[in-house]
Design a protein that fits this description.
Layout lengths: L9 E5 L2 E2 L5 H11 L2 E4 L4 H19 L3 E6 L2 H15 L4 E4 L9 E2 L12 E7 L6 H8 L2 E11 L13 H4 L12 H12 L3 E6 L32 H15 L6 E5 L5 H14 L4 E5 L7 H9 L5 E3 L2 E4 L2 E5 L2 H6 L6 E4 L7 H10 L3 E6 L7 H15 L4 E5 L10 H10 L20 E4 L2 H6 L1 H14 L5 H9 L3 E8 L2 E12 L3 H8 L9 H8 L10 E10 L8 H15 L4 E7 L2 H9 L3 E9 L6 E8 L2 H22 L8 H8 L11 H12 L8 H12 L2 H6 L2 H12 L4 H8 L4 H19 L4
Parallel strand pairs: 3-9, 4-8, 4-9, 5-6, 5-7, 7-8, 10-16, 10-17, 11-14, 11-15, 15-16, 21-22
Antiparallel strand pairs: 1-2, 1-3, 12-13, 13-14, 18-19, 19-20, 20-21, 22-24, 23-24
Helix pairs in contact: 2-3, 4-13, 6-13, 7-8, 8-9, 11-12, 22-26, 23-28, 24-26, 24-28, 26-28
Length: 771
């Protein structure tokens, strides 16, 4: 059906230029180059919508494609137009993402969109008048079946960037009002919609007052899908290869995991479910499934249950005779070794990297699957870092990439639109372009975000680098990057290409009354992480008064790492903060020895370590700071002193599970301790180290000497890693003998005791002199 055939009430525009009939070749060229906007006349706006939606649906179904229809205008008209479009498709299995959807329709707010990951619907209505949440838009984009339509309701394109979007309240920070949030992101998105050759934008012109009460919704239902039979168990060759790889993990040599990667809709989770079902049919007793949440794993269980008609199915648990497929959260699988013929990890990129490594070590038969470009977590960063872990921890591992879509056909228009609009396929600069980058050959600049929003190559390189460096980067981060009123974006370029980047948040600057309210925990201002942390958790009421720059993200291109670019960029940021008369520079991040080492080399010292592990990083959150002004220097020095004073106490209680390598780094003080031991204490130490006296009766002197030694680099240099870790685990963190032995891979208490004796002998000789 040609667009000219839609009839009365339709006017086509190319970049707001009136449409003229063209030849087929001219039309194809213009549509590919500029896209089109369809505007409904006032006489029959819903009829135009219905004809257009019916035509879109009729064309999409045989091609197994999905498409996008953007309805623009006032909120009430777009609501009625969406209902008309759904009626015209003849299918009623539609999901509304809206806070103002008509009564009787299936609707959820954008904040709950993550809960539908893995679900499938025929159509989605996404109401941008309720707030345009990029995370929600990305989540629902993959739920639409082949032949379906994503109906987007927006203000007119020229007005959308200035629309009072409810989402602005989540982006703004004190002291900025929501109106201070810019519309750069929405302007870019509207531009992409208008230029997309296969996205139709239908606007309303001067609709009559009779449209104030849109008609009711449709009650059509989708026919029941047939259960896949034995001849349709694999939907693509990719899926068959993936299942074969997973089955080999369970039946072949130990410690040879499989890693499945794909974009959404390629049957990755289905492959895991099919594998689990086949293993139960083959007589395996226990397949354990883990994922960021049980809802995330629901497609896996659904596909497994479809192949096991005689099984007993409960939420997160399938039993067939003596065999079972059972869900277990990642932390439980790490904390308690469970019997398993195979462990399946779905959406691995959304699970903390340290937890993935722990699973890999604890379970000899394990398979991982993750989305490469998607809402669930950033698989690109996962691939880069986790592949290094796999190479180090396994004998051999198998990688399978699923390319062929299952839910829809290849070259799907909606998938391309979502990818481009949300920059899900953003890639950093090519390695070759940065091969010769050095700090001296690069330039550092603060980017103009108005220009950045219009520069697709730079924006893609920059966001792609953040995606690669921070595997929890989500679509919404791009909107914050472009529109956040307290953010600035810095970049290091080499011959115009992005070699490194940093996001900076301005924090602090409260008055005395506000600072007091923060200190007393009566106020928690959004977007001021470090001042709030110092006031609430460390007791510095004056901290919110000072102004500082928090480095939210810093990333260096993988091909440029190890050349000093990150240090050069950070040094430029610190100098700029000084020129702006800021009081401090700081950062908060999931602590690892590598990251902590980077910040300490740049003279940002730890002032706090969170007691609980972060749900996204799996690490304890560290706060590092460097003072710039007189007030900032005093604040950071006092905060650092308090941290040094209490950190050893925390290690035996809330931080008892902190990794030894990280503990060792954090124990080193700016001013090392000196032993405070009496002659009798030294005799006790000698009797333990060189004689036969026990550990328990000498624990006081042993702890004092150990803390003294490990508070400075000198003491660390005296001990080898096993001896140092034995002192940290048993003496400082006071872990049990069995846990210490297991962690150190020793045979038991006697072996741990002998390791401690060797360590104390070295320390007594060094610190005890002639004692």
């Amino acid at each position: 059906m040609e667009l000219e055939d839609f009839g009365k009430g339709i006017r086509l525009f190319y970049r707001n230029v009136p449409y003229r009939p063209q030849t087929g070749r001219e039309r194809q060229h213009d549509k590919a180059d500029r896209g089109f906007i369809v505007t409904a006349g006032p006489d029959e706006p819903f009829a135009a919508v219905e004809r257009l939606a019916a035509a879109l649906s009729a064309n999409a179904r045989p091609a197994r494609h999905r498409c996008a229809l953007c309805l623009t205008g006032d909120p009430q008209w777009t609501l009625g137009a969406a209902q008309a479009a759904l009626r015209a498709t003849g299918v009623g299995d539609a999901l509304w993402i809206s806070t103002r959807a008509p009564s009787g329709v299936r609707a959820i707010p954008a904040s709950e969109a993550r809960g539908i990951l893995g679900a499938e619907v025929d159509h989605v209505v996404f109401d941008a008048f309720s707030g345009f949440d990029p995370d929600a838009f990305g989540a629902v984009g993959g739920t639409i079946r082949a032949g379906g339509i994503l109906i987007l309701l927006t203000p007119p394109p020229m007005e959308w960037p200035d629309f009072d979007d409810p989402e602005n309240a989540r982006i703004t920070v004190h002291p900025y009002p929501p109106e201070a949030v810019t519309g750069r992101y929405l302007e870019r998105f509207a531009h992409i919609l208008a230029r997309d050759p296969e996205c139709l934008v239908l606007g309303k012109e001067d609709a009559p007052d009779t449209l104030a009460s849109p008609p009711g919704g449709s009650a059509l239902t989708r026919p029941e899908e047939a259960r896949p039979g034995p001849h349709t168990i694999f939907r693509t060759d990719d899926q068959r290869i993936a299942v074969e790889a997973v089955l080999k993990v369970a039946t072949g040599h130990r410690r040879r995991p499989a890693v499945l990667t794909s974009d959404r809709g390629r049957g990755k989770s289905a492959a895991l479910g099919i594998s689990a079902a086949l293993l139960l049919e083959k007589g395996k007793h226990r397949v354990v499934v883990t994922a960021p949440s049980l809802s995330t794993a629901s497609p896996l269980f659904r596909h497994a249950a479809a192949l096991l008609p005689d099984s007993n199915v409960k939420r997160g648990h399938i039993t067939l005779g003596a065999g079972e497929i059972v869900f277990s959260p990642p932390d439980e699988l790490v904390g308690t070794l469970q019997p398993a013929d195979l462990v399946l990890v779905d959406e691995a990129a959304a699970i903390p990297a340290q937890m993935l490594e722990a699973l890999l070590v604890r379970y000899a038969r394990i398979a991982f699957a993750t989305t490469v470009h998607g809402y669930e977590g950033t698989g690109m960063g996962f691939s880069v870092r986790f592949h290094e872990v796999l190479n180090r921890r396994t004998n051999r591992w198998c990688s399978v990439r699923l390319e062929t879509p299952i839910r829809w056909a290849e070259h799907d228009p909606l998938e391309r639109l979502v990818f481009r609009g949300l920059l899900l396929d953003a890639d950093p600069a090519d390695d070759e372009a940065l091969r010769s980058a050095t700090p001296g050959a690069c330039t550092v600049e603060r980017l103009d975000r108005d220009a950045l929003a219009k520069d697709e190559r730079t924006l893609s390189e920059l966001f792609g680098l953040l995606v690669l460096a921070h595997y929890q980067t989500r679509p919404a981060d791009l909107r914050h990057l472009l529109d956040g009123p307290n953010l600035s974006v810095c970049a290091m370029r080499y011959r115009g290409r992005i070699a490194a980047t940093a996001l900076i948040a301005a924090e602090g600057g409260f008055d005395a009354e506000e600072a007091g309210a923060i200190y007393e925990n009566r106020r928690r201002p959004h977007g001021h992480l470090l001042p709030e942390t110092l006031a609430v958790h460390l007791g510095f009421e004056e901290a919110p008064l000072l102004r500082g720059a928090r480095v939210m993200r810093i990333a260096v291109h993988p091909d440029c790492q190890g050349r000093g670019l990150g240090t050069h960029l950070l040094d430029a940021l610190i100098k700029q903060a000084g020129r702006e008369n800021l009081d401090w520079v700081g950062a908060s991040f999931g602590a690892t020895p590598r990251l902590l080492g980077f910040w300490e080399r740049n003279r940002l010292r730890p002032v706090r370590l969170g007691f609980r592990r972060g749900t996204t990083s799996g690490s304890h959150s560290a706060v590092v700071m460097r003072g710039l002004s007189v007030g900032g220097l005093q604040l950071v020095d006092e905060a650092r002193t308090r941290f040094e004073r209490f950190f050893p106490l925390w290690l035996s209680d809330p931080l008892r599970d902190l990794e030894p390598d990280l503990t060792a780094m954090l124990l080193i003080r700016d001013r090392p301790l000196h032993p405070v031991l009496e002659p009798r204490d030294w005799r006790d130490l000698v009797s333990f180290a060189f004689g036969g006296r026990g550990y328990d009766v000498n624990i006081g002197p042993i702890r004092e000497l150990t803390l003294t030694a490990l508070s400075g680099a000198e003491g660390h240099a005296l001990l080898n890693v096993p001896s140092r870790n034995a002192c940290i685990l048993r003496v400082i963190q006071q872990r049990g003998w069995s846990e210490t032995a297991e962690t150190l891979d020793l045979t038991g208490r006697a072996a741990v005791t002998e390791t401690l004796r060797n360590a104390i002998r070295i320390l007594v000789r060094h610190y005890g002199g002639d004692t």
